[in-house]
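Office hours follow-up: a student asked to see two folded examples consecutively, so here they are.
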Amino acid sequence: MITPIAQKFKVFDDFISPTYQDIIEQLLLSSKIPWNWQDSMDYKTMDKRGGGYPQFVVDVFEDGNVFDTSLYHTMIGLMSKVVDDILPDYRPIRIRGILQTPIKDDIIHYPPHTDTTDSGGFSAIYYVSDATGDTFLFKEKDINDEIGIENRFEYKWEPIDRISPKKGRLIVFPSNFYHAGSPTESQRRVLINFNFMS
């Protein structure tokens, strides 16, 4: 079990068995997944780039609603292991897949965001395959939106950790800490994002 104070990502390599890793990778990289284009991952702002970066997403589960049965059933073992091994007494509130492709963007990381403003929640990111494009964690927490959406491109962010995508790797952190992805040079950067509340 982890504590609600994050100094760094909690990292678990080979969190699930190699066979299970392969099953998830084969499914998410197959042509059967109904990926949806999202112009901006983070926020809509006045900036010409929108609020973040474009990507493909597939909603799997949110607030008790299952959107994709095959993905949900494939991921339920992974989700259950996170609860059993790391976050006892927590329940999943959202699961979604994210797929990024290479985009020329001369920045270190995209505008940071939080998954929730509620303290006490946790987020987990599972990396489906090896890729470039680190995930950054920042010391800032979202408390009453003090930074402001319109200031997130200019704000002087202070990273406290960064992790590279690696197949089978899981990272866990408080959901109200700002975090961000970064541009990938890989053909695909694919991850599963989980959110948990007590």
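And the second, which I mentioned at the end of office hours:
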Amino acid sequence: MVTYSESGVDIDLEELTVSSLTSRLSDTLKYCDVITGAGHFAALVRMGDVAIAMSTDGVGSKILVAEMMNRYDTVGIDCIAMVVNDILCVGARPAALVDYLAVERPDPEVAGDIGKGLARGAEMARVAIIGGETASLPGIIRNLDLAATGIGFVDVDRIITGEDVSPGDTVIGLESSGIHSNGLSLARRVFFDELELSPEDEMPGSSSSVGDELLRPTRIYVEPIMELIESDVDVHGLAHITGGGFGNLKRLRKDVGYRLDSLPEPQQIFRVIHEAGVDIREMYRVFNMGVGFCAVVAPDDVDEALSILGDRAHPIGEVTDRGSEVELKACTGETIKL
């Protein structure tokens, strides 16, 4: 079996590392009025009747696929998406970002292509890119790394933290566009090492190339989720399904669980990775498996929520009273727990 840790990313060790870092920082929270606790998708700072939401993220090893294809015009969309989708999870409207581009050596042509993607992503998310930093770091960076920090705003009385999530609530899943920007280390290991394919080769069972599927931009959920937030629907929780898969739902409220028994069929890329030797539980622990974002609403609000979110949104399960447990029916028919 091929695992994420064998591909160079140990999720459990990452969690310990983050905990080790953040445990040293808790005393700094006294310097402002912080609303959200550690571990949420975005941090909230109270400024009177309004809260500022902040999040930071990067493109990750998807950059290595872009390098293999010498195509950098879409990774900027991924960078924007990873930040704004997290900001949405506290009910905030994303407003502005600053980007950070670290390079081994400056390349104006590559930078221009990255800029195209950033501009396109910002247009899709309706956010302003108000500044940033470009650093040349030979000896530290190989090729390049791309990340961003974003802010959003929400009225204090409209904040969504997940504390209202309750057993019996319905989980609505919004389809992903594909692999998005998580699990690329494992995907690259499967396609380029195990299956010995090149980025230009056709992906098994698809008319698209391996490279095109891996570079397919992350879906930006700002438009449908903001419409949902601003409607009469009582939204109890919002979750960006990124690294960690459906385990991200646990970040909303610790004393509830989730039963996901109506998940949509994942895209072909995930089936190929699984059939190449990745255990099905590992698949749902690492990848979004066709669902990139979740909204948790009361059962009475499901129909209205679906009418707002469109035909790429589906009821996928419900909230349970089993604290911190995600039980789901996999595409193979198996029931697994995360």
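Two things to take away from it. The longest helix spans residues 108-125. The chain has a mean pLDDT of 95.
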